[in-house]
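Risk register update: the risk of archive-format incompatibility is retired. Evidence:
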Amino acid sequence: MGSDYHIRKTTLKDASGVTALLQASYPVLLKPFYSEPVLREALPLMARAHEGLLQSGTYFVVVSDRGEFAGCGGWSQTQFDSEDIDPAVAYIRHFATHPNHLRQGIGGRILDRCLQEARSINVEKMMCNSTYAAEKFYASRGFRVTEKIEVVLRDGVNFPALLMRLQFGEV
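Archived output:
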């Protein structure tokens, strides 16, 4: 990633920019991997910023030198805002790269930051609910598919995904 991009933690003020990024990214990048009916139901639920993540301190945005949101993503020690915390496990959360900024190392930079931070607090394993579109990206960083899953977005709306795992020390 060139010097014309910088990464920073998000705040609630970033909600509209992150939502716009997700709305630009997901329909384009997921279309080759999912049917139109699945995307029609899932995208309105997926392509919006999550306030809890924005103010978590572990969610990031990459901004271009022109002020464009080029990518976002983060991690947490809970999945889907549950109260259950295992200090040895963390979760990759809500990654996206804007289609105009693909192949610039943006997602990799965010993921590296997430992994580094998780390791610094002794996390041993990172889990990820990956879209089919992102499988190769996560696999290139050492994540392995453990099973096919369906993420419940709301009652009656399930999204096909892959549960992926990275065990630190195995890569």
